[in-house]
Write the structure tokens for this entry.
Amino acid sequence: MIRLRQVKKMYGNFAAVHGLDLHIRRGELFGLLGPNGAGKTTTMRMIAGIVAPSGGTVEVGGIDIFREPMRAKAMLGFIPDRPFVYDKLTGAEFLRFNAGLYGQEGPKVESLIDELLDLFELSRWKDELTESYSHGMRQKLIISGAFVHRPEVIVVDEPMVGLDPKSARLLKILFRRFVERGGTVLMSTHTLEIVEGFCDRVGIIRQGELAACGTMDELRQDAASAGAGLEELFLRLTGEHVEPDLDAIIG
């Protein structure tokens, strides 16, 4: 459903992403991990069609997102790590605006808007300007906006940031139900516990390249670490060593 072939992204002489090959299948919940500066966010933005690659191809549903952006983006919902909303729109207006970008309007859209607002307990704020929304409420509205045009693919960067435990649990259920019905979710996060217990497969990026990809069992095999948790696997596969000398700090 999502396929990257030899994708590169250069910023001057710096290669943020270098020769990345990745295939995420339909009906899969895929976790993308990597240290800070490894190229995760750049990769997510290229898949979402926000940043153009310097080389290679990015396809969503078999469609090149930069050759046919309208067709590809109609299949995709993007949830960024920072919830940006238009302060002078109400919650309902914001979702209506999102649906309108994809040419969708009418009673079915209005019904779905009501269902999404109810799901995330935003119904009583439906006609309030979003400038009065808390960070968590804005995050839930952004999530709703990604689903309002009924996409086939969801790309989400740090999905749980700002959500209370109940809403985070609800989002997990929503994502799992979405992939069970044939959707695809690509999730990037630093919260390893979420990925370990939730994702079908995991990809680990290091210095703009794919260091490892597979199920938890496959990652353990790659790292020769039977029974290891994702934190240990992540540190081994990325070459990140955590052995600081703290004596000068804590005495």
